[in-house]
């Protein structure tokens, strides 16, 4: 498998009235073609910000630290995403090589423009298609994602569609430019469970059909288990564990990942008590020194947890964890 | 009415008038012909997709929306109210006895009031305490039960995380010492690691204070872990109700079965074996005739398209409204 995107030492801070906030710190990972990677974490863990930086899409007050590097491998060569400046350059990435779908599809479509017009507009922006061709492709895509009567839906507005239908239309629009990478930010969270199952199925089909890479942002480990090949767990801006989905879910190494999994209510054991992870995620203004999880960790090994940031340790060839239980400093 | 039933709804319906014109006026049936009994001290779960009427049913039992058909009774040993014919005077008393916890702890708390004032407000509005000292006493007592300390009471809501805010909302709902509390999606906005904490707190309060909870949720695994009895709603109808274990081990309605199998499994090797539902829940303004689920049901026959099934029980508290459940139990594995 060939690499699609490499993220190296991504550190991202935001200028705010309350000072400089670190949203993402020293995050590195790579994604191959046709691979689905889950990005898991609580609110405030930096998962959405990380995904947005893949398209250089963060707000103006964002500051990327000097060592940060994101490389996108395309047929035309390598693109250094963070060095892109002009809208013309950025268009190659945004909506071209990379598309994004969001949690709330109602908020992602312009309410006063028909779905079809929005789809045609973006197709024309990213290719030299005629309006007629763009319309044909759009209707075809709507049909492909399971929207019945696509020709009629094309001329409707977002509010005329149901929630599940809107999310399908969103996916159709995101995929019509044939991106290499799809970023899906909590795409099923706002949907009912029966509709969620349909959308997950659809996304799985599309990955194999288009050979795309997907970054799937979610807080739902069940959805991760069902869709992803690999999973990255984030906490307070740091990548704390990454590995193949089976290993991470069946044999989690980081105390936070273990806590997340045991906090989940499980249907096959109704007597098991629910164990919350004690405490709350600290404010990004008060990032704890050392391991970011030390304020809530039940397995602190010693003073190094407060003093030293744990580096990533390989548990197996492709399962890594950043925790002092496994580092030299912790032994 | 039996001793240990706190709330009983008989063929309860709630409809909303939509449209203002003479000809465009019609009724949206949000809840239709629902009969349930909620036992004293129980944790009663209500599940369903959006648009199933679960929130409306919860509000009807609190008398927060008008009941347009059927009836509901409340009795706690001290008082007995007929919620349909309740007088203004009685309703004022019922408000103390029946409370609501909201979904979004960020929207439910006024940013301009201290936590103490937020929790004390119901006491003052309802005139339950005479002196400030008495109010403070009750606020402190309930705050302690919800694991909030004195320091917390002086602060404003913005200083708290989601889990803490939800504990404040719970304290506010419980300060008037209610017997019946509707918790509407009370953990849906919380992160998983915090959610378990709030659920444990609610269970604790149920045990220690003897409160009867109606827990409305779309998350089946949460319901399975907290509730004693579960009712499943679809398009305003009750399709199945049973003690939790019975429902989860042997669901009878095709919709309940489909709901269970749609829950994403934590086992990565258990992918896509589930039976998937086609389509979406129909609009409540344009309901299909017959069984409301027949448009999505893989087992629908002609009878389902014209005759609406009644809820039928087997004497063990497990009731289901489906024409074919018996034969499906024999022929289709759960």
Structure description:
- The complex is a heterodimer of chains A (331) and B (334).
- Helices cover 32% and strands 24% of the residues of chain A.
- Chain A has helices spanning 47-53, 87-93, 105-108, 115-126, 131-144, 150-153, 163-175, 193-210, 221-227, 245-250, 255-263, 304-307; strands at residues 3-16, 19-32, 36-40, 62-64, 69-74, 77-80, 98-101, 181-185, 213-218, 230-235, 238-244, 313-316, 319-321.
- The longest helix of chain A has 18 residues, at 193-210.
- The mean pLDDT of chain A is 89.
- By secondary structure, chain B is an alpha/beta fold.
- In chain B, helix 4 (132-145) packs across helix 6 (162-174).
- Chains A and B meet through helix 7, helix 8, helix 9, helix 10 and helix 11 of A and helix 6, helix 7, helix 8, helix 9 and helix 10 of B.
Assess the beta-strand content of chain A as a share of residues: 15-25%
Overall helicity of chain A: 25-40%
Q: Rg of chain B, please?
A: 21 Å
Give the total of beta strands of chain A.
Answer: 13
Distance between the termini of chain A: 36 Å
CATH superfamily placement of chain A = P-loop containing nucleotide triphosphate hydrolases
**What is the averaged pLDDT score of chain B?**
90
Structural class of chain A comes to alpha/beta
What is the spatial order of strands in the main beta sheet of chain A? Answer: 7-8-9-3-10-11-13-12
Greatest chain-chain contact: A-B, 43 and 44 residues
Q: Please give the count of helices of chain A.
A: 12
Structural class label of chain B: alpha/beta
The percent range for strand residues of chain B is 15-25%
Please report the distance between the alpha carbons of the first and last residues of chain B: 35 Å
Query: What's the domain count of chain A?
Result: 1
Please name the CATH architecture of chain A: 3-Layer(aba) Sandwich
Rg of chain A (CA only): 21 Å
Low-confidence stretches of chain A: none
What does the largest sheet of chain A look like? 8 strands, mixed
- Calculate the mean pLDDT score of chain A and round it: 89
């Amino acid at each position: 498998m060939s690499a699609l995107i490499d993220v190296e030492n991504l550190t991202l801070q935001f200028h705010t009235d309350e000072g400089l906030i670190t949203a993402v710190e020293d995050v590195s990972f790579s994604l191959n073609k046709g691979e689905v990677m889950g990005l898991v974490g609580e609110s405030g863990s930096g998962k959405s910000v990380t995904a947005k930086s893949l398209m250089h899409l963060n707000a103006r007050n964002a500051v990327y630290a000097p060592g940060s590097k994101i490389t996108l491998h395309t047929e035309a060569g390598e693109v250094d995403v963070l060095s892109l400046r002009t809208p013309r350059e950025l268009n190659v990435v945004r909506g071209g090589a990379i598309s994004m779908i969001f949690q709330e599809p109602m908020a992602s479509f312009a309410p006063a423009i028909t779905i079809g017009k929005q789809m045609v507009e973006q197709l024309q922006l990213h290719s030299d298609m005629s309006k007629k061709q763009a319309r044909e492709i759009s209707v075809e895509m709507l049909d492909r994602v399971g929207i019945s009567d696509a020709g009629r839906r094309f001329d409707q507005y977002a509010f005329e569609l149901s929630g599940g239908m809107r999310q399908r239309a969103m996916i159709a629009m995101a995929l019509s430019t044939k991106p290499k990478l799809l970023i899906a930010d909590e795409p099923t969270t706002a949907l009912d469970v029966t509709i969620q199952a349909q959308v997950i199925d659809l996304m799985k089909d599309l990955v194999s059909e288009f050979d795309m890479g997907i970054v799937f942002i979610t807080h739902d480990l069940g959805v991760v288990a069902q869709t992803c090949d690999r999973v990255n767990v984030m906490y307070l801006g740091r990548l704390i564990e990454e590995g193949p989905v089976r290993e991470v879910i069946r044999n989690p190494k980081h105390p936070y990942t273990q806590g997340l999994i045991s906090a989940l209510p499980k249907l096959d054991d109704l007597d098991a008590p629910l164990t919350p992870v004690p405490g709350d995620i600290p404010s990004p203004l008060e990032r704890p020194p050392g391991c970011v999880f030390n304020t809530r960790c039940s397995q602190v090994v010693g003073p190094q947890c407060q003093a030293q940031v744990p580096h990533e340790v390989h548990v197996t060839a492709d399962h890594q964890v950043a925790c002092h239980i496994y580092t030299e400093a912790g032994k | 009415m039996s001793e240990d039933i706190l709330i009983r709804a008989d063929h309860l319906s709630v409809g909303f008038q939509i449209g203002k014109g003479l000809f465009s006026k019609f009724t949206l049936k949000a809840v239709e012909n629902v009969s349930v009994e909620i036992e004293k001290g129980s944790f009663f779960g209500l599940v369903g997709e959006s648009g199933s009427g679960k929130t409306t049913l919860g509000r009807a039992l609190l008398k927060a929306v008008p009941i347009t058909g059927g009836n509901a009774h409340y009795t706690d040993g001290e008082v007995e109210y007929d919620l349909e014919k309740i007088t203004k005077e009685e309703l004022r008393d019922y408000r103390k006895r029946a409370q609501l916890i909201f979904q979004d702890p960020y929207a439910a708390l006024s940013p301009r009031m201290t936590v103490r004032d937020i929790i004390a407000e119901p006491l003052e509005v309802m005139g339950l305490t005479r002196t400030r000292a008495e109010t403070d006493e009750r606020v402190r007592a309930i705050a302690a039960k919800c694991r909030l300390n004195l320091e917390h009471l002086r602060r404003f809501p913005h200083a708290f995380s989601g889990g803490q805010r939800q504990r404040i909302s719970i304290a506010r709902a419980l300060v008037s010492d209610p017997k019946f509390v509707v918790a509407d999606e009370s953990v849906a906005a919380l992160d998983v690691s915090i959610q378990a904490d709030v659920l444990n707190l609610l269970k604790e309060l149920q045990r220690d204070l003897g409160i009867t909870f109606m827990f409305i949720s779309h998350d089946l695994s949460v319901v399975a872990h907290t509730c004693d009895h579960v009712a499943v709603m679809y398009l305003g109808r009750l399709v199945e109700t049973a003690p939790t274990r019975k429902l989860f081990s042997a669901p009878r309605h095709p919709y309940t079965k489909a709901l269970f199998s749609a829950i994403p499994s934590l086992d990565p090797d258990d992918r896509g074996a589930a039976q998937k539902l086609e389509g979406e829940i129909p609009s409540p303004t344009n309901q299909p005739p017959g069984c409301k689920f027949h448009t999505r049901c893989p087992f629908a026959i002609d009878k389902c398209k014209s005759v609406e099934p009644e809820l039928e029980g087997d004497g063990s508290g497990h009731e289901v409204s489906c024409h074919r459940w018996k034969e499906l139990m024999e022929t289709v594995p759960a």
